[in-house]
Specification:
Elements: H1 3-25, E1 32-33, H2 34-37, E2 38-40, E3 46-55, H3 67-79, E4 94-103, E5 112-119, E6 130-137, E7 143-150, E8 156-160, E9 163-167, E10 172-181, E11 194-199, H4 204-218, E12 223-225, E13 230-234, H5 243-252, E14 254-255, E15 262-266, E16 271-274, E17 283-286, E18 290-301, E19 312-323, E20 328-331, H6 337-345, H7 351-363, E21 370-373
Parallel strand pairs: 15-21
Antiparallel strand pairs: 1-14, 2-11, 3-4, 3-6, 4-5, 5-10, 6-7, 7-10, 8-9, 11-13, 12-13, 15-16, 17-20, 18-19
Length: about 375
């Protein structure tokens, strides 16, 4: 291992230790707001979707073989009283798109929301296009909103003479405030005395801590942990006429969520993320790399001058094997995450080597954490 590489590994280890020290220093104040780890059941966004046409494109629309675009355009013109032969339609300035948006449960009629517009055919760019009036449906088939307006692409695509240049993704655009809510969702909190609070990550300890925090603020019997992921809330008598204030106060409370020891590995990028709760039992680790290099060169055998021979080409292959020393080191005890990083980096391992070592330690039964591979 070169001196420069050793310095890089030492610097990486120092950064990891500094980060681990930071997490250790702030571990006592890792409380989270209720609204960041849980949500009122039923208060969620709903997906709506629609099929539409984008017009005004500068020759970057769907080609003639995209039959559904031709059919849609012909049908649209027919509804306006214009009879058109489908075989005579050229759609280079028109593109068929899918429009998707998220509808909040408390969105009222007339509210303006954003939508994403994605090309459905073989259009090369939606730049400069305008979405025609498009109904957006929910999963029940009802129309909840209507979208129309100019698109914002945030990129471009241009080319000529066999060369092209592209920035971002020009076949997907944003309809900023171009969707108008026409139907409200059938959800209301008025007059309700009970609510359910759903945890984003189910955990019995966190559920009990959350119930204790709510009861400590409002009084006993306000919150009951029904299972690891659900709490039942009863609106106190003092908040009978202020349910919104009750829910807002619940969301603003803080609780220290319990965490499961977890190691996340991404072998494609060499990324390793370990929680502060990760620990390993005392274990001996030896890690070494075997590098095999095969070099092939083309050479030519020349005959002696006036020897009457002929030139003969041949290959010369050189095989070299180098095995780095794998020192045996003791790691664990159990240890915290910063001590774990320090022990593994003392072996001079790279992030990809660290992944292999952690997998081997877990296979040996010495790693007390869940391992997730991305």
């Amino acid at each position: 291992m070169t001196r420069r590489l050793r310095k890089a590994i030492v610097a990486m280890a120092a950064s990891a230790l500094a980060l681990a020290g930071f997490f250790g220093a702030t571990g006592d104040v890792a409380a989270a707001r209720v609204k960041d780890i849980a949500a009122i059941k039923g208060v969620r966004e709903n997906q709506i979707i629609g099929y539409g046409l984008v017009v005004g494109l500068n020759g970057t629309g769907d080609r003639e073989k995209t039959e559904f675009t031709v059919q849609s355009l012909t049908s649209l013109l027919g509804q306006m009283g214009i009879g058109v032969d489908p075989d005579a339609v050229r759609v280079r300035n028109v593109a068929a798109v899918m429009v998707t948006a998220m509808l909040h449960p408390f969105a009222r009629t007339g509210t303006q929301i954003d939508a994403t517009v994605s090309s459905l055919g073989d259009s090369s760019s939606l730049e400069g296009g305008t979405l025609l009036m498009t109904p957006l449906h929910g999963s029940d088939g009802q129309v909840y909103a209507i979208g129309q307006g100019p698109l914002s692409i945030g990129g471009f695509s241009a080319g000529g003479g066999g060369s092209s240049v592209q920035k971002n993704h020009p076949t997907v655009g944003r309809l900023a405030g171009g969707v108008t809510v026409e139907r409200e969702l059938a959800y209301s909190i008025e007059g309700r005395s009970r609510f359910e609070l759903a945890l984003a990550r189910a955990d019995f300890t966190t559920a009990l801590r959350l119930a204790a925090a709510i009861n400590g603020h409002f009084g006993m019997a306000t919150a009951t942990a029904r299972d690891a992921g659900t709490l039942e809330l009863t609106v106190p008598a003092a908040y009978d006429r202020d349910v919104v204030g009750f829910l807002a106060t619940v969301e603003s409370l803080t609780v220290d969520p319990d965490r499961t020891a977890r190691v996340v590995l991404n072998e494609r990028t060499g990324t390793v993320v370990m929680g502060a709760e990760v620990a390993i039992s005392r274990v001996a680790v030896s890690h070494g790399n075997l590098s095999v290099t095969i070099a092939t060169t083309q050479e030519v055998s020349q005959p002696n001058p006036f020897g009457g021979g002929r030139t003969v080409p041949f290959r010369n292959t050189d095989v070299t094997a180098v095995e780095e020393g794998g020192n045996l080191a003791l790691v664990g005890g159990p240890v915290t995450v910063d001590e774990l990083v320090r022990g593994l980096n003392a072996l001079g391992v790279t992030p990809r080597d660290l992944i292999a070592i952690l997998q081997a330690i877990r296979a040996a039964g010495a790693l007390s954490a869940e391992m997730e591979l991305l």
